[in-house]
Structure formats: structure tokens, C-alpha cells
# Entry
Amino acid sequence: MPENKEYKYTLSENSDEGIIQIADDVVSSIVGLAVTEVEGVSKLTGDISREIIAMLGKNNLSKGIVVTYGEGDQNTVKVDVSVQIKFGYNIVEVSKNIQEKVKQSLLTMTGIECSTINVRVSGIDFSE
# Structure
């Protein structure tokens, strides 16, 4: 199978049955779902270029998420998440819950370990 830059994570290379690869969008979607399941999170937020891409039809779950693979070790990733928190929730507590949920979701679903999970709170949602 030719090297495809869209598939950065390879689960198994030395198997007689073939290789297993996971696309970047899958990893970003898992992170996005994990973040949106945390109580107190209003929505994922991103920069302007990501907002434009989202309007053009790009999957909204990856907005505000940057996944960086460990150099030389594709079994670890660094995740940067940008979110808006609902008014009335403790920002530190929600952020820690995001870190734990992302870590557990990625490990359970893919076997990928997070070396770092950075949470950027870009705003407070005062609606409701």
C-alpha cells in the first residue's frame, strides 16, 4: 500500500494479514466526540480558517482540534483542543474532564496514548 499522508497512524505493520491504518480525520472525530460529551462544554471553537473550512462542508467535529503525532513514535499524540464553556461551570474542572475523556476515548478506541492534552478556553457561552 503506498504511503498516504492522510493516514498517519499505523496500528500494525508486521502482520501477515496486512496493515491497519487510521486516518487523521478519524482521530480528530474521536477527540471531537469525547470533548462534546463532557458536561459544561458548549462547543468546539476554531480559528477563522477552520471556520471557513467548516462552512464549506468539512466535518464540524474536527473544528478546534489539532492532533500532532509524536516524533518517531506514532503510538503517542499531542492534542490541542479549543472550546467554549457554558456559563456557570468551573473552567478548570471542565478542562480536566476534557483531558481525561479525550485520553480514555483515544486509548480505548485506537490504542493511541496522549502525551499531552492542551485545552484552550476561547469563550463562555452565556445563552440559555
Helices lie at 24-36, 48-55, 91-110. The mean pLDDT is 80. The chain has three helices and six strands. The beta strands are 9-12, 20-22, 41-44, 65-70, 73-86, 113-125.
